[in-house]
Specification:
Number of helices: 4
Strand order of the largest sheet: 1-2-3
Distance between the termini: 14 Å
Oligomer: single chain
Strand content: 5-15%
């Protein structure tokens, strides 16, 4: 049995949108994208790399899936330490609007009730799902 691990970047006042890049997600008029970059140090980098490399796959929402699928298959040479596992490992996507087949390799839309689908993933053998 494996765990689902929530890995979120969140400000103390509750902002979670667009931590990585200024233009990552401007929906709703959000103008503060890239807020996390200034705080990303060596310790944070090691934690992210360890989490991604050691993951058994990834549980993603539709929006995160779309952002990741647009970036990671075309990642730079310097980003390959993250790109390789993100591209090659299974991705399980919670979405009511996306349909199979998904363009990003090894990606699957969770079917039926999301809570039941995630519970089934947890019952499988394997490494944890961040």
């Amino acid at each position: 049995m494996r765990k689902v691990i929530a890995d979120e970047w969140l400000t103390l006042d509750g902002v979670i949108q667009a931590p990585g890049q200024p233009d990552e997600d401007p929906s709703g008029g959000f103008q503060h994208g890239g807020w996390h970059v200034g705080y990303f140090d060596d310790l944070a980098q090691r934690q992210v790399v360890d989490s991604v490399v050691n993951a058994g796959g990834f549980l993603l929402g539709r929006r995160t899936y779309e952002i990741f699928a647009a970036h990671w298959p075309n990642a730079s040479k310097e980003e390959q330490v993250l790109a390789e596992p993100l591209n090659s490992k299974p991705k399980y996507v919670a979405s009511r609007t996306l349909a199979e087949p998904l363009a990003w390799q090894n990606s699957t839309v969770l079917q039926g009730d999301v809570a039941d689908a995630v519970a089934a993933l947890k019952r499988e053998d394997g490494q944890d799902l961040p």
